[in-house]
Amino acid sequence: MSLIRLEAKEDEKTGLFYLEIYHPADAEQPLVTTEPRYKTAAAAENDFIAIIATKTNLLR
Fold first, then answer.
1. How high is the pLDDT of residue 56?
2. What is the pLDDT of residues 38-49, one digit of tens each?
3. With contact defined as beta carbons under 8 Å apart, do 32 and 21 qualify?
4. Which superkingdom (predicted)?
5. How many Å apart are CA 21 and CA 35, to the nearest integer?
């Protein structure tokens, strides 16, 4: 069961990617939308994972 859903989308104006983060995973509207600053969808997703991993490690 997914708790969140990530969708990387391309900004039409800049050509850069941003993330929409949905919680719960089946929500119709994103909980958070990032600024378009990533050159690829994979870079946006990897940055999100790195941020979550860093914050989780700080809680230990």
1. 83
2. 999 999 999 999
3. yes
4. Bacteria
5. 12
